[in-house]
């Protein structure tokens, strides 16, 4: 994890960058095109979108117009809850693929574990994976028992689990389970929508390392071997968020940040969510 292009290797051998740009709540069209174009120009090689975000078209356009080959950019998208089920997931995937304008998608995720549907949804992802339309498949917001359901019922294990993850929600048991199953953990909302950035422990470390609070938290992700996808539309923030490869937190400081855990979410609880 010494440079922005460094990758983790998923269980099937596919390389996934440790750092990506999140585009949740980024408007389609000019705003998302500008954000993705800026990120790519700064060295980012991964973009995380979703059907629900409504900006796949702009993401695809920015990637196609980047001057890089399609293989150079790792693109993630997700099937939304209302589209879950076997046939409807296959249809939703094709719609996403067409909006993006790609022949294939690098990583396709089940956005939430919709009760009674996520097993059939996963079987659709397996079909897409086996047919070569996606290079890797995974889930988002899945707890241990959801993952166990899939592993028990299906042929291909999830390769990624994207969850809310930050020093106030360390999810250690889930993280350990994912590691035991070779499932790469990925953090959404790694900065807790900015709420973490004024915490005294974080600001103290920022001063110690000569870094910003955001860089401290994102580096903590990496050193826990968690892929991270901070969202921003501002060039200075996108640049700042990438400045995490030229320093390392000490083991003591990693433990200090771990100690901030409150099991506190800013997003929905996957076990108590009105899907």
From TrEMBL:
<comment type="similarity">
    <text>Belongs to the aldo/keto reductase family.</text>
</comment>
<feature type="domain" description="NADP-dependent oxidoreductase">
    <location>
        <begin position="24"/>
        <end position="261"/>
    </location>
</feature>
<keyword id="KW-0560">Oxidoreductase</keyword>
<protein>
    <submittedName>
        <fullName>Glyoxal reductase</fullName>
    </submittedName>
</protein>
<dbReference type="InterPro" id="IPR018170">
    <property type="entry name" value="Aldo/ket_reductase_CS"/>
</dbReference>
<feature type="active site" description="Proton donor">
    <location>
        <position position="53"/>
    </location>
</feature>
<dbReference type="GO" id="GO:0016616">
    <property type="term" value="F:oxidoreductase activity, acting on the CH-OH group of donors, NAD or NADP as acceptor"/>
</dbReference>
<dbReference type="Pfam" id="PF00248">
    <property type="entry name" value="Aldo_ket_red"/>
</dbReference>
<dbReference type="InterPro" id="IPR023210">
    <property type="entry name" value="NADP_OxRdtase_dom"/>
</dbReference>
<feature type="site" description="Lowers pKa of active site Tyr">
    <location>
        <position position="78"/>
    </location>
</feature>
<feature type="binding site">
    <location>
        <position position="111"/>
    </location>
    <ligand>
        <name>substrate</name>
    </ligand>
</feature>
<keyword id="KW-0521">NADP</keyword>
<dbReference type="InterPro" id="IPR044500">
    <property type="entry name" value="AKR5G"/>
</dbReference>
<dbReference type="InterPro" id="IPR020471">
    <property type="entry name" value="AKR"/>
</dbReference>
<dbReference type="InterPro" id="IPR036812">
    <property type="entry name" value="NAD(P)_OxRdtase_dom_sf"/>
</dbReference>
